[in-house]
Structure formats: structure tokens, C-alpha cells
Description:
Helix content is 44%, strand content 23%. The chain has helices at residues 4-16, 19-26, 30-44, 60-91, 101-105, 107-112, 126-135, 181-184, 197-205, 216-224, 268-277; strands at 49-52, 55-58, 94-97, 120-123, 140-143, 152-167, 188-192, 210-214, 230-233, 245-249, 256-264.
Amino acid sequence: MIESYLLEYFMAVYEEGTILKASEKLHVSQPSITKAIQKLESELSLSLFDRLPNKITLNENGKIIADYIKDAILIDERIREKAKELRIKSETIKVELTAPGPTFKFPDFFYFSNKKYPNSVEIKDEKTCIKDVISGICDIAFINSDYKDERIYTEKLFDENLYVSLPKTHFLAKKNTGLTFQELDGQSFLIVRELGIWYDITLKNLKKSKLFKIDDNVITDVIGTSTIPSFVTNITLKYREFEDRIPIPILDKEATLPFYVIVRKDKLDIYEKIKKIG
Length: 278
């Protein structure tokens, strides 16, 4: 097999026209390039250049071989790209969850548990999360019920409690010990676009309200300059505190969600990473 650097050096001379320019491009000495070309010709048992004093030029053989070397280099690049893609895939943990709360609870695990590649994170309904863990489509999931299956390890991790974030001047802000969905219904709210089950809960309980979806990457900036109520939780509160707003707990039973981790028993090592990093 021809070493890849020989092909690279050959193409540099071919493209630059001289060994001098090729050496400057590659940041290697001219003798190194000369030796590489000689070695390539020796391995091919074929002369690729016509040599004159202080000058070499590609001969007809070299021009024909150059096309094949181009293809070989492209194939090499594609192999390396595919290898990187597969390496990332093999080192990436696929995670599914019903709402984004766990990503705030365990940020290091979700985004860089292996300190190299970010994990794959998708919000899905609970039934899909369970099905995907069992089938192996995802490695681990965070759901809202104590799922029982002999193949699955389940453990409760935390409760997430929904709060409404109100401007201090809002007429409901004085009820800072708690509010109900009924009291909030009819108000307009800013919400994160990907809320999962929390969106279903707010939609169900705030039928008279308008819910304006905002992308997660700008929600903090938008809320910070707006007087429209929004939502936070006991988990996300420290990431979205504002001096001119007050978080008030929502008192309804549906405003509290338990979060359980589910993972196949043959993949318990993944859960160990959560405990170590989280």
C-alpha cells in the first residue's frame, strides 16, 4: 500500500509546479519532497517526471497517474470523515426526555459527558421514550412515571415544580405565595418552543391564554426586555432570574412533575456517568 504522504507530496508538486513551491506549501524541506517522489516512482516502478538541471516536469505517465492519485486522496479523505462520523456516533449517548428539565439538572452529562462530543438529546412523549429505550434506539431516557419492566432499571431523580415568572408590577405579583392555573388563565405567556410535556400541561390548563413560543437560545433575552409573563421551574430558576420579575409557584397538582431515569440493565454504565458527572 502506498503511504498517503507520498501521494500528498506528489500532488503538491503537481499543483505548485516546482519542488520549491511545494516545500513552501507543505512546510517541509525540498530534499524530503525529492525523496518522497523518488520513493513513489520506485513503488510504482514508473517514472512520473522528466528531470532537467534544477527543474522537474510531469511527464505523460505522471499526468495520467495524477488523476488516480487525486481520486485516492479523495477516497482517503472520505474514509477519514466517515471514521470520524462513526467515532462520534459510538461515543455519543442518545438521550430522550419528556421535558428539558433534566438538561438543566445535569448539564455536564447532557452536553459533554465524555468531555469530547455532545450527547444527542431529543424531546419525545413518554411512550416513545420507553419504546426507544427498550428497542435500543436511545440509550437512556427521562420520563414522568415509575415504569416497571424486568429489562429496565428505573429510579426517581427529582421533582420539577412549575412557577410563573411575573413582572413585579403585574397585578398578580402580590400573590407571591402561590397561584393556580385558574387565576392565571387568560394572561398571555412567553414560553420556550421545546417544552415537551410542560407545553401540553399549560395548554390544557390555560385555555383562554395566548402562548407565544420563543426559541430557547433567545428566550432569556426576550424575557429580560418584556413585561409578558413567562414560566420557570425550580430546576431552571437559577438560569432565568431577573431583578424586575418574581417567580411564583403554581399550586395545582399538575404543576409538579416527577422525573425518573430509565435505562436498559445492560447499559447501566451510562447511568453511572450521570451520577458521577451530575
